[in-house]
Amino acid sequence: MSAWWPVAVACTAVVADALLGEPKRGHPLVAFGRWTRHAERALHADTRRRGVVAWLLAVLPAFTAVTLLTVVAGWLSSWVLAAVEVVVLYLALGLRSLGEHARPVALALEADDLDTARVAVGRMVSRDAAALDASQVAGAATESVLENGNDAVFGALFWFFLLGAPGAVLYRLANTLDAMWGYRTPRYLRFGWAAARIDDVLNWVPARLTALAYALVGRTRTAVRCWRMQAPAWKSPNAGPVMAAGAGALQVRLGGPAPYHGAWVERPCLGEGRAPDAAAITGALRLVRRATVLWLSVAGLAAACALLLGRA
């Protein structure tokens, strides 16, 4: 198989996501969410062991099915395999969805409609949106775009390049389970431990490559400085580098206190420069798009080098 194969599949899937967006009906992740809720109801207990069993029960059927599908597709034809991989990776990506969620926040802020902006950002983040002022709404949306750039785009691309379509599925399902079970609440502190830790492991390398990409396509020196100095203080080992580098690349101040479940939680500051506003949200979207182009360009360059070395 040519070294260009995964690059061509990735580029096609990214274009498909840009043109089509996420399916409005029948998205496999919706069915996966229903399946995991059944697994949670059947297996939930305040133990890590039950959480591990539930994670395996949720992920392994879909991962196995996609693995078998790619094997059978490869037996049939390289074109069938390519089509399967494009569709699977397209479904794992969410680049257009980031804009569809974030732009309404920016537009509402530009129109000085804080109530609408709060409602829109409440669809993106878990904090109490009703307690946020305009700058905090912009900061919440900007943080979400930067962090989900890794979760919805670069993590899936990384594991696709490493393990093909099954790798993209494994990553996306693990990331979805972390979003459902990975909370430090009494219900999920032990049961969700496996979901949170597995997601941390799968994201460790992609998050740092994402941070590097943000730095390279933005204010590089500021991004690297913020990444080095601020990321270690963030509670998430992967979100810290991504958001610190992203905030530095945009030269905007993020982080700081945020309201969760009726109480304000102190968080470290990220980035430096101006306070977040509507322009910071649109800037974050541009940053993610430029980083996507960088990732695909580097992958293409690597494929070209592999071909040249193979002919040498």
TrEMBL record:
Biological-process GO terms, alphabetical: cobalamin biosynthetic process
InterPro entries assigned: Cobalamin_biosynth_CobD/CbiB
Keyword Kinase part of the UniProt annotation: no
Listed pathway(s): Cofactor biosynthesis; adenosylcobalamin biosynthesis
RNA-binding found in the keyword field: no
Parts of the chain that traverse the membrane: 52-72, 152-174, 293-310
UniProt subcellular location: Cell membrane
GO annotation, cellular component aspect: plasma membrane
GO molecular function, one term: ABC-type vitamin B12 transporter activity
UniProt keyword annotations, A-Z: Cell membrane, Cobalamin biosynthesis, Membrane, Transmembrane, Transmembrane helix
Recorded topology in the membrane: Multi-pass membrane protein
Function: Converts cobyric acid to cobinamide by the addition of aminopropanol on the F carboxylic group.
NCBIfam families: cobal_cbiB
Family per similarity comment: Belongs to the CobD/CbiB family.
Name of protein: Cobalamin biosynthesis protein CobD
Taxonomic source organism: Marilutibacter penaei
Source taxonomy: Bacteria, Pseudomonadati, Pseudomonadota, Gammaproteobacteria, Lysobacterales
Name of the encoding gene: cobD
